[in-house]
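All the exercises in this workshop are built on plain-text protein records. A record pairs a protein's sequence with a compact description of its fold. Backbone structure tokens are a discrete shorthand for how the chain folds in space. Once this layout is familiar, the rest of the handout is easier to follow. As an example, a complete record with its sequence and its structure tokens follows.
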Amino acid sequence: LPIFGPSARSMVPLLVHALKDPSPEVQIHAARALGALGTDAEPAAPALSARLRESAGALRAAIIQALGRLGPAAAEALPELTLILDGDSDELRVAALQTLGGIGRRAAESADRVVALCTNSVPAVRAAAVAVIGRIQEAPEPLLKLYGAAVEDPEGVVRKAAAEGFGRLGQAAQGHAPKLFAMLNNAEERD
């Protein structure tokens, strides 16, 4: 789609229509193409949200990823994205978390579920939840506590997400600097 340039936005209605094509492959490609358009595809948010409720498998994953590229316009899909957080698929759970992060503060209603996933048994889910919570919740005190626990997680990917979260908090995270310095001094953490 980049070859279409500014006229790519004119493709959105055609791609939305393709989301209802009888062929699952066409639907998946349409969702991916809408995602490739990023915020230019914001008008597709209602259609993507509706299809998300009805979809499964690869199409569901493609729709979640497309919504993740729409930013705050994807807020319409919050109820379904929140349900996915409680689902069985860790892959979809991670994608839904990333989409919530893209929605930002408008996804604050999902904060409790995201916080619960910060202690999930699957490292990728924990890392995604830790990475996202600071984008949807703005109160620094609970974030400091959460990041403080996550920086001691046995998995490096979770510790990294916590360190980045501390970084976004800036001066508010100053009291946790010793933990971060210790982490940086650990040779394994730098790799």
About this structure: The CA atoms of residues 131 and 161 lie 5 Å apart.
